[in-house]
Amino acid sequence: MTATTRSRLSAALPAGLVVRRLGxxxxxxxxxxxxxxxxxxxxxxxxxxxxxxxxSATPEALAAVRARHHLDSPMxxxxxxxxxxxxxLDLGTSIRTGESVATALGDRLVLTGQLVGxxxxxALLLGIPLGVLAGLRxxxxxxxxxxxxxxxxxxxxxxxxxxxxxxxFSLMLGWFPAYGPGEGAGxxxxxxxxxxxxxxxxxxxxxxxxxxxxxxIRELGREHVTFARARGVRERDIxxxxxxxxxxxxxxxxxxxxxxxxxxxxVMVEQVFALPxxxxxxxxSVTFRDVPVVQAEALLIAALVCLANLVTxxxxxxxxxxxxxxxxxxNPSRAKASAAALLSGTRExxxx
Length: 352
Hints:
The chain is mostly helical. The chain has 17 helices and no strands.
């Protein structure tokens, strides 16, 4: 990295801004870890009996389990022991399978990551172009048609959409497999993940579509766009150089929120398509009260969501110079509030 590049990066991302964002993310993770630990500890039943599972629960066995896992200690001490082990990636042992929790999560994280990545690609490839088209054809037939399709996609739960996709593309047409992860990580895995990715991505495409449409409409009404048209600048250049550049920040904010939704949506999609990912592992662990796995996976998902929001907050000043010195740069919620305002404005236009 050259000195010029480092200076530009330092100007776009001051050290104080990065430290504040990192501190806020770590603080949020700490609060979430307390919430996850407290909620599971407050669940009905004896934690020692849960850890023993179906084995004989003699008084001696219960006392040994309580001593091993510090269950006789105050809640704050139990949390400290659990968090200390989690920081060292010692997430305990699964009650149901007896394997390391870290190993179980690592084996399934790859498949879930592939599913989320493909679903994210589906949302980008459909949501942004359709949103731009709807914004350019504001209040015309094309706009109404695109918005109607978006409402249908948004109103359809991911599991219901998955069942429809299985019936049409697997049972009727036979184009794609109906269930399972496939063999290896090549073409066969991709064929097995196409339908789950479509079911997952279509559920959030409408959100990205509406956000892009609202941003395009807002940029088309700005003075510099009107001035460019008055000077005879081609519509294509106006779209690429002015309109689309102005939509980057609100759309980027929406992308960060969509990633969080995709991680949560994998639970139902993996169940429908029988995929052995984090979602199905979470369902099985909750069913069998596998507390160590539930705690570790809940913390992992929370960390991934926080990481996605942190990256979004840090990338925004790099893409929009105004955020480097504007009050929005000191207030990370400003861009998200702007995105919410764009969506609310779109709803009001639809009602009109």
